[in-house]
Specification:
- The chain has 12 helices and 11 strands.
- Strands 7-8-6-5-4-1-9 form a 7-stranded parallel beta sheet.
- α3 links the parallel β4 and β5.
- α2 runs parallel beside α3.
- It binds iron/sulfur cluster (2 copies).
- One iron/sulfur cluster (SF4) binds next to loops.
């Protein structure tokens, strides 16, 4: 079951809403190695230039949009390999800049009706009135997670106007659903999050800001105490075990820290179909990366050696030894020998 207990959280407005959510069971076509979530980039390029983010380095006012063909192919794969998972629209760009976002949300709902679809936005287009919460949630989004780069009062007004439930991340009522948990396609909510300039110190101390493989404007990054990673932490990382990151052109990426698309092309793309997905997810290269991460050897992975981020639960040991020490060549499993990355 999705929920740990049967008590209806007070956040759900009525019993009917809660009953629908309780009915959803997770399907894991790839067993315990089924990805937990996808991180998808509908837009590459952002209208803000935050000092803690590598999107600041991208060419100003240039946006690359995911095409409808790529979007459709991706959702067909999601529906086959992870029909009940979270899909976050995020990565290196502002998703609400996509001119067809509402249409895309409707397509996603048709092609993959059980996913939990989240938009992570900087809120600028909401403030300008170019999109609104109700429109996005009605079209198929489940959660609009808003990093508030404008006054919180403005977002509270917009959220109230939508008539959908919302809460502020750092002032949340008891027992509210987490945006990082899969509840299914019936949940609808808005989460208002502080932007990193206003984060509590504990969040910074937890290492939740990374250096995006050392792609930052270091002068601007100083304000966030970010400096180039020379010696990475001897910590595990759970990202390549649980997330499937997709660049705007459909390429799989190593992880959500690849804002610049540095690893695009190394793992194939959604255009390689279901077989291609398996060759990527269990491929020789990514398995070698996972094994190094499991052994806390970030330094031996080209990208991880430039990464200091430590997500919560990053040290969990995921997958079994057997699941790590093999790779899929498209026809059969092979033992994973040492490879230099
Ligand atoms: S953190 Fe978000 S809003 Fe800021 S530049 Fe990066 S993608 Fe844009
Ligand atoms: S340690 Fe490696 S896989 Fe994990 S977030 Fe950093 S670069 Fe990505």
């Amino acid at each position: 079951m999705i929920k740990k207990n049967n008590k209806r959280p007070s956040f759900f407005r009525n019993k009917h809403e809660w009953e629908k959510i309780k009915l959803i069971k997770k399907i894991k076509p790839l067993g315990k190695t089924t990805p937990y979530a996808w991180a998808v980039e509908p837009v590459h390029g952002c209208n803000l230039k935050c000092g803690h983010c590598s999107a600041r380095l991208l060419e100003p006012n240039k946006y690359d949009f995911m095409t409808e063909e790529t979007w459709r192919k991706m959702w067909e794969i999601i529906n086959t390999v992870t029909p009940t998972c979270r899909v976050d629209l995020c990565l290196s760009g502002e998703p609400t800049l996509h001119p067809n976002l509402v249409k895309f949300l409707k397509i996603a709902r048709e092609l993959c009706p059980q996913t939990q679809l989240q938009i992570t936005t900087n809120g600028t287009m909401l403030i300008k009135g170019k999109v609104d919460y109700k429109e996005l949630l009605d079209a198929g989004a489940n959660i609009v997670y808003t990093d508030m780069y404008s006054p919180r009062e403005s977002f509270i007004k917009l959220a109230e106007k939508s008539d959908y439930p919302f809460y502020e991340y750092y002032n949340k009522p008891d027992n509210v659903p987490s945006p990082w948990t899969y509840y299914g396609p019936h949940i609808k909510m808005i989460v208002l999050q502080e932007n990193p300039s206003n984060w509590p110190k504990s969040r910074h101390r937890a290492g939740l800001l990374g250096t995006w493989y050392n792609n930052l404007d270091w002068e601007a990054a100083k304000k966030f105490n970010l400096t180039p990673v020379i010696e990475p932490p001897t910590r595990r990382c759970n990202q390549p075990f649980i997330y499937v990151p997709v660049h705007f052109d459909g390429s799989y990426l190593l992880c959500c820290q690849d804002n610049m698309g540095e690893t695009a092309g190394e793992y194939g793309s959604i255009y390689d179909g279901i077989d291609g997905f398996k060759e990527y997810w269990y491929g020789k290269r990514i398995q070698a990366i996972r094994r190094n991460l499991r052994e806390k050897k970030r330094k031996d992975n080209p990208q991880c050696s430039r990464c200091c981020i430590t997500f919560s639960r990053c040290d969990y040991k995921l997958w079994t030894d057997e699941e790590i020490n093999r790779w899929w060549d498209g026809k059969e499993w092979r033992p994973l020998d040492f490879i230099k990355l």
